[in-house]
Amino acid sequence: MPNDFTWLFLAALAAATLMRLWLALRQMAHVRAHRDAVPPGFADVMPLAAHRKAADYTVAKARLRIVDALLDAVILVALTLGGVLQLLIDLWADRLPVQNLWHGAVVIVTVFVLRGALGIPLDLYRTFVLEERFGFNRMTLVLYLADMAKGLLVAGLLGVPLLLAVLWLMQAAGPYWWLYAWALVVVYSVFLQLVVPTLVMPLFNKFSPLQDATLAERVTRLLQRCGFRSKGLYVMDGSKRSSHGNAYFTGFGAAKRIVFFDTLLSRLAPGEVEAVLAHELGHYKLRHVLKGMLLGWATMFAMLCALGLMVEEPWFYAGLGVQTQTLALGLLLFLLVASEFTFFLQPLVSLYSRKHDCEADSYAASHASAAELVRALVKLYQDNAATLTPDPLHSAFYDSHPPAATRIARLQAGT
């Protein structure tokens, strides 16, 4: 029977879903309205054809997000109030005792595999229809299936042991299990920062040392100016999946490494690559990476604390359509519904990220050429078909980078 928490959940889900749909519709309308005119500051560097392509690509992605949001809402209601989760619980109860640690783990894995499987058709459309239509996709079906198989293997090897450890703590560590679980997840996240770059990512992409001697020398001088030490400069074969370009650094402590997409190197001049890298180094030198990790850990602490308060409450399970009450199922329900209750905090996260991005731009301008960074950004906006005219409210909710016009104006003004 529905209780007060049922209606609270439905209200949160409806509010979050309607906001997602409204924001997507706003984005589509705003981008379409500006499709036929390149913004004044870009008229000399952005062809109208490229601007229109970016507008059409942005609208197509927003349309797909509408379908995605509706599908997610339907799946969530079906799992909880629709009784699918209770059905899975009962099916596995025929093989494992409900209070058994393995029962909870198997149910959780089954639910997330099921959700992933239901999302495959939309992901196939995104990759082989939408991205193909705009000239970005280079993925083959064989590679897509191989990535999926590798992803499941990695998730099993790295995720299942953590899940089992958390479930064991929930059963054995008493009322403050959530505090021990939080400490475990923090330590494990640091461990992943060490092993993922060297052991996991090479399963999906080839990483080769940077061969361009001129560029390598220029990058090395930049690293020396910035006081940054890494385990090496690598080029990733991102072109085998997509023509989108990027650069990043990954790892933690002595395991840090700098990675360039081959698509980025093929498009940008050495000075532009240096400026883009200076921006990425700015995030590290200004401790944005550490601050982001600390914020993530603090958020996780608050959410696990909230779960610790609710996981023993019968109304929590009954309100979400589940009759069987175990700690593992409480964790699963919390993972399923938490994002609906926290969705309206997203603008704060985006604002925090945009602030860091502005600081990284300023750092790049002081350690490399601001003009080179502007030229690189214009090329990246064009090559990635990123719209120059996003809806302001949509941008405030979702964008981790400032709008292109704002970002480039700040660089040109030297602020």
Compact overview of the structure:
Helices cover 71% and strands 4% of the residues. By secondary structure, the protein is mainly alpha-helical.
Describe the structure.
The protein is globular, with a radius of gyration of 23 Å. α7 runs parallel beside α9 and α14 (370-383) runs antiparallel to α16. The chain has helices at 4-33, 48-79, 84-93, 101-133, 141-172, 177-200, 213-226, 262-265, 270-285, 288-310, 314-319, 327-342, 346-367, 370-383, 392-398, 404-413; strands spanning 207-209, 233-236, 247-250, 257-261. The chain has 16 helices and four strands. By secondary structure, the protein is mainly α. The mean pLDDT is 91. Strands 1-2-4-3 form a four-stranded mixed β-sheet. The longest helix has 33 residues, at 101-133. 71% of the residues lie in helices and 4% in strands. β3 and β4 form a beta hairpin.
